[in-house]
Specification:
Length: about 220
């Protein structure tokens, strides 16, 4: 009998493959499906960072709403403030809802409205028009929820996810020189950092993207 793979044993790549499988049969096509996954990955990472900062505030000031909901306490640490319905925990809680696509679209809109630096960066009215069924969105949310820095210790975890979908989309679309041609694979980033050995001075990455060069340079500090 084949061994059953537990959640803890799943690789990051297998989880991302499950994300793709969850969206099979939708009318959006490869590019929209990729964007659907990446949008949820953003919400997951933003939610994780928000929760981490919220716990830090709670440790310092206690469980006091006046502090926990003070937007400046989050922005001062480069963390996006999220209202309750924009948090990943809320999306997971409502993953079975028939209007989950609308809930996600509303979260995207509210995050943009509450964080001016993100204006124009997040998809708007996207998920409700994607053509997915509620059970597909539930399956996708469940898989994205497994992508966690505590499970996959990687300084550039979101970069790895981004790289995976750029590569997959290039293969599926039959082209390697149109989508993502300026994204440097993690293996190349690591090699460059090893060759340069930035033990001192300032690391300057004019095309920082997901900041892979900066992350790979940390171990030389």
């Amino acid at each position: 009998m084949p061994k059953k793979v537990t959640t803890a044993e799943q690789s990051l790549e297998s989880i991302m493959m499950n994300c793709r499988n969850a969206l099979r049969g939708t009318v959006g096509g490869n590019e929209k499906n990729r964007d659907a996954v990446m949008g949820l990955v953003f919400l997951k990472f933003a939610g994780d960072k928000f929760n981490k900062r919220r716990e830090a505030i709670k440790t310092q000031h206690g469980d006091v709403p006046a502090f926990l909901d003070k937007k400046a306490f989050y922005l001062s640490e480069n963390v996006f403030y999220l209202n309750e319905t924009s948090r990943w925990s809320y999306i997971v809680k409502n993953a079975n809802a028939n209007d989950i696509a609308v809930i996600i679209d509303t979260a995207m809109r509210d995050i943009e409205d509450g964080n001016p630096p993100l204006k124009g960066a997040l998809p708007q009215n996207f998920y409700a028009t994607l053509g997915t069924r509620p059970e597909q969105m539930k399956a996708l949310i469940d898989e994205v929820n497994k992508i966690d820095e505590t499970r996959f210790e990687n300084g550039d975890l979101i970069g790895r996810v981004y790289e995976y979908f750029l590569q997959v989309f290039a293969i599926d679309s039959g082209t390697s020189n149109e989508k993502g041609e300026f994204y440097t694979p993690a293996s190349i980033v690591q090699l460059i950092a090893e060759l340069i050995e930035p033990y001192e001075g300032v690391v300057y990455d004019p095309c920082c993207g997901s900041s892979g060069m900066f992350v790979s340079s940390i171990k030389f500090v």
